[in-house]
Amino acid sequence: MTREEIIEKIKLLPYSPGVYMMKDENENILYVGKSKSLRNRVGSYFQDPDRLNIKTQKLVSHIRDFTCVYTDTETEALILENELIKRHKPKYNILLKDSKSYPYVKITASRFPNIVLSRTRKDDKGRYFGPYTSSKAVKDIIETVHRTFKTASCGKKFEEGKSVCRPCLNYHIGKCIAPCTGKISAKEYAAVFSEIEDFLKGDYKRIIDQLQNRMQAASDNLMFEAAAQYRDRLTALKRLEENQKILSDLHTDRDVFGLYESETLCVIAVLFIRAGRLIDKELIYFSPDELTDEGALGDLVLRYYSAREYIPRSVLLAFAIGENGEKDVAAFLSDKSGHKVEVRTPQKGAAKELVTLACENARQTVVQYAQDVNRSMKVLTHLYRVLALDCIPMRIEAYDISNHGTESMYCGMIVLENGNFKKSDYRCFSIKTVNGQDDYAAMREAISRRMEKLREYRLSGDNPEESFAKMPDLILLDGGKGHMSAVKPIVDEYGYPISMFGMVKDSFHKTRTLTDGEGEIDIAHLRDIFTFIYKIQEEVHRYTFARMDASRREKVKHSSLEDIDGIGKAKAARIMKHFKTLSAVKKATADELAAVSGISRPIAEKIVSHFENAAKSGHTKSD
Description:
Elements: H1 3-10, E1 18-23, E2 29-35, H2 38-44, H3 54-62, E3 65-70, H4 74-88, E4 104-107, E5 115-118, E6 127-129, H5 135-149, H6 169-172, H7 186-201, H8 204-220, H9 224-243, E7 254-261, E8 266-274, E9 277-286, H10 294-306, E10 314-317, H11 323-337, E11 342-344, H12 349-386, E12 395-404, E13 407-417, E14 420-421, E15 427-430, H13 439-460, E16 474-477, H14 481-494, E17 499-505, E18 511-515, E19 520-522, H15 527-562, H16 569-579, H17 582-587, H18 590-594, H19 601-617
Parallel strand pairs: 7-10, 10-11, 12-16, 16-17
Antiparallel strand pairs: 1-2, 1-3, 4-5, 4-6, 7-8, 8-9, 12-13, 13-14, 13-15, 17-18, 18-19
């Protein structure tokens, strides 16, 4: 379709909400957008080219057609836009991480509370803080809470005035106040968690004042051990407070968006400011091709919050989305959150300093990325020369075998792209045709299945982003000449231009040479390659062992339950799905077990009796 034909087609569009999809000559979707007026928005792409920025000009130069989906409201258009972008992953759209995986810090609502990581925010009377950008951030916070407030990290259920078990090592080394002993009342423990809530809100002054008063009172009453505990907690809190700079009004939560664009990478940094303190940040990476005009950035902010549960009262932007854009985004966020949300692009004052800080975070990320890419390319180029490869190995796959006896045998496949681990492309093969511990046969099966998957995807042309659809430039096997002799003929049979080497270990379990099945290349004296290959060796071993061990543990859990008369695979699976861990099953009462679908009272009592007898004889299987 010519430009003139597209302009005529635009004239038929209504002035109503909807979603538009720009397509190239092969019907591939280049860009998905939404608008409250389709004719105005789609028509804006085909105005005088000199009025468009370079990125938009590049997009328009590839557009050969467009299609629209009409909606009743702009909110419906936003939801549909999100779904279409996730499904088609258009080249010119900025892709966002699925918000369903964002974790929270949760304080449970039990008499003896616990602090845990939660993936969802439920209406269960628990107190939630976040969301945070990664589970690591949440785990670090939980660890800090346990270390600072000396709360129990074991996850046990406690009862007032009753000892549920002997105190563990943490109590004896002063890292836990041990509610398991029954000497801590529910009221005292709840008071500690009240302080923890203040800490998570960033209200350090209130906690410090309370602790100082309690320390003084304990000292006045000659309760020196309690006073010492308050002193240690005060010291830890003051140290934490010194490390956290107050950035804004203590009573306002803010998200601050910064943007930095370069010729190789663009980054949006989102700073999460809660109670005046920077608690976390998120980085959104995208290529220089993706659109960053006012309309695209306004859509991005809307999509960013569309699936999020928590929306702060203030959103500051380092980039313009137009006056009407700010009003539209603010109205949407206010309606979704149930409270008024301010959206603006500050030009001066403290708010301007915050967006400048966000932009600097984005800039530093781009600079670091450029340095990392340069470093990775140097190593890959050196590896290409040393191994005399056909091309620089931009995609590397490494394989390792792990097994538990003759059962649970797995072959792990890890992937590196551009010298960096790409965990989303990791895959694992459950070995099905090998009897006994035969690593060569297991590796042959895994590589045969990998090559067959590659052949199927290349013939069909389906899903080119799937890991198995991508051809590696280099395959590394955890093994020497024996593994290469067993596997290389399989790869050669398919005729793909894939180089393959085995990683030969020394007595310290580190790769000292690489072998093509005939000769060996010493890499011990090549520090950059030696370190690079060692990291690959350790990662493929870690991943493969973890997958094998998870399978083994699951089988142990099920087989332990299946030892009990009246319980087969189906009932064992139902019990494990309900209780999650074997430890929880062992601690469960007959009433709790009988609450599981398909488990009768007599069977529940058999389970309790089985584990009680096993504990007495010392033959229980662990998690």
